[in-house]
Amino acid sequence: MELALTDLFRAKWTNEIHDEWIRNLLKNRPDLTLERLQITRDKMNLHIRDSLVEDYQSLMPSLTLPDQDDCHVLAAAICARADIIVTFNLSDFPTESLAIYGIEAQHPDEFISHLMDLSPPLVYQAIQEIQTRLKNPPRTVDELLTTYENLGLIKTVAALRFYQDLA
What we know:
By secondary structure, this protein is mainly α. Helices cover about 55% and strands about 5% of the residues. Helix 5 packs across helix 6 and helix 7 (about 140-150) runs antiparallel to helix 8. It is globular.
């Protein structure tokens, strides 16, 4: 979310995507509440301009993906004229299924690495902003980067550490 505020790209999502991340987060984080996550959703929609994609559902029946439950993501990307779908689940969005729409699936590590190529200071500043808001537990930038590395953001962390050493 902090990266979306940099204006290096235009983030897009739907209410269905919101429902999905909220449902999954509640499953993995019982300490969170639906009400709190709905507030987060509303703030996302408010602070990231033109982010909410609507009226994409009519495309869904004509789309084919390995998991038909993901067609809403592709339909929204088509309606939003997106170039990229950022996902950890690359196998759910095969190149041949997306290419006809001029869309590519990218792992978050690749996507953020490209943002680092565009503007290392903005991306690093976004990471610092995230770090300053972490209160429970608080973390240093290095600890946050280690967490990202453990999530598979290997290239991103290497680029951020390189920039950190230069700064």
